[in-house]
Amino acid sequence: VNDLPEWEGPYYKLLSKNDSGEASGHQSGVVIPKSFDPYMPDLSQYSGIAPSVSISATLVFNGNVVGRVQTRYQYQTWGGDRPPERRITGNLSPLLANSRENDLFLIERNVENDTVFRLSLITSSENTYAQLISTFSGKRWGLLQSASPFVARAEIEMQAKEIEAAATGPFVPFEADAKKSIVTRIARSRAFQKEIARLYPVCAMCGSALRSPKGASELEAAHIISRSSSGTDDPRNGIGLCRAHHWAFDVGLLGITDAGTVMVTHLNILPSNTSLVALHERHLIPPSKTQFRPHIEATRWHLKNVFLN
Ligand SMILES: [Zn+2]
Questions:
Q1: How many Å lie between the centroid of ligand 1 and the Cα of residue 242?
Q2: What are φ and ψ of residue 262, in 5° steps?
Q3: Do the Cβ atoms of 6 and 191 come closer than 8 Å?
Q4: pTM to 2 decimals?
Q5: From the CA of 211, how far away is ligand 1's center (Å)?
Q6: What per-residue confidence (pLDDT) applies to 1?
């Protein structure tokens, strides 16, 4: 019941001459219709002539992966002289260099990470093209009929408030979500990630916090009772970990004691895993709001069901 699709979307757009670069004096990149902005990363917190958020994207040209790039979602304000425009721009030439007006541009976003996208171009000569555009009823952009929904920022904020409110009450470790809509489940999952990211600026086990120059963080939000076991999205069932320690925690190489210290499995420590030993008996770095520290019911469940003992 907890399975979510890997991607939201696709949202489609038939390219204009401006997008494909056929128009003279064009800006590079694909213009994003205003109606799709509530689903893209929030730029309202930034100011300046061209505020932008860095996003990573897998580029797919007629079904083949042709690149993995850092691009950005940008708000071009033109100094207020013209109506503002939103674009995905930068490093898209593997897709746009050979594109033409009315080619089909598809946007998908990773359910687990809202700055990870898959951007696809389908040219009008492709077999799938005619079949897809027959479903558009003349509209140049929108959600594909077969698509998973996109979840708006407002929905995620609502879920974040709900999660925070619930976390001031008694801890309920399991949460049946069979009755929730897919939009609610995606929004909840993303709200959980944002909440854990706010609470844990560094890995709670090792203190590491790798960041790219553009600010992308390597840290991940781990469920202590896994989602596949219907673990709750209450932040007390979560912990912020670096990728390596998230992985080691999920496979049971690491656990958390009642005293809030790290426990490393003593079973069959492989030479490749010896770096973990230094974590043994370390105190977890607490979250910024200490009342949201990992709940003992969750850490005990993990020790009993996941930790290798
Ligand atoms: Zn770590």
A1: 4
A2: -80, 140
A3: no
A4: 0.81
A5: 13
A6: 37
